[in-house]
Amino acid sequence: MKNLKNSKLLLFLFFLGMIVTSCVQDDDYNAPEINSQEPNVAANIDIQTIKDIYRGYEPKIIEAGDGSARDLYIEAYVVSSDETGNFYKTLVIQDAPENPTTGVSISTNSTDLYTKFEPGRKIYFRVNGLYIGEYAGLPTIGVQDGDEVGRIDVIEFESRILRSTEIAEMVPTVISIAETSNSERLNTLVQFEDVQFPDGIAGVEHYGNLTNTYGVNRDVENCDGQIVILRTSGYADFKNFRLPEGNGTLTAVLSIFNSDVQLFIRDINDVAMEGERCN
């Protein structure tokens, strides 16, 4: 009788194992795709229209102009990446993968955004009920936090954002340092040609501070001596890299902090300075 019970137990365990195995399609136990179909929504408002709602001072709520409670979706492309730690709890989007007219930051408590919303990923984002304002001069969508724009809760953020199946090639807009004063370029991917780090820091200093986690500003110059700030987070995993000595191109997301225009790179590959330096 005991042997019979053992046999039944072994048979049960065998079939249970077969069921579990059949539920897994490969040896890596990979999670399924986040979405394999295009979201069934259509954009009915654009980034510029949202930005035009804000007229300064306190953030303004985003709502339908006809007074209805209908959902409002924007369609946009991701330009930021928090994979290296240089962006934090922020998703930066622009309205086209090439020759964009405008962009905006989305402030959220979500992290590891790059795992779902990498650069080039097309998204749809439901904005009604959120607020448009500025964080230190940077156009930002979020929740109202007094006179400022606060971060969107993780659960709410995930309920509002839809991930398209499209991943576009992002073509940075080539601009000069003088053109960084154009506010419509903020929150977009830009590229500077024929630039370098100044004498005294090129090949000497690092992108970040090696002794603490404070952010660091490094000047970038063109051959006419015009300067723009490259900002590196104290948590960026490339902060220990030494600044290149040569001249070349710099691709970055254009930002601002109060009156200081700033550039944020996604990773070290955004910097290609191997050419001969300016005189």
TrEMBL record:
The keyword Transcription regulation does not apply. PROSITE patterns: PROKAR_LIPOPROTEIN. Pfam families: DUF5689. Residues 1-26 form the signal peptide. Keywords: Signal. It comes from the Bacteria. Residues 43-271 form the DUF5689 domain. InterPro entries: DUF5689. This is DUF5689 domain-containing protein. The lineage of its organism: Bacteria, Pseudomonadati, Bacteroidota, Flavobacteriia, Flavobacteriales.
